[in-house]
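SAMPLE LOG
Freezer: B-3
Tube label: C17
Construct: single chain, 63 aa
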Amino acid sequence: MGEWTDKAKGRVKETVGVATGDRELEAEGKADTAKGNLKGKVEDAKRVIKDALDGDKPRRDEP
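STRUCTURE (predicted):
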């Protein structure tokens, strides 16, 4: 699943777990939210690396 899907699913599980007193469901929700956050950080890192590598190449509009 995607970053936003994991975060949303995690928040729902966590909220339902807190509301019902289900600590296991709450923990699953926290884990899903963390997984979504990690996916976001990985995508950010990939973007930074790609931009850094692309920065070494001359652009088409440069002589």
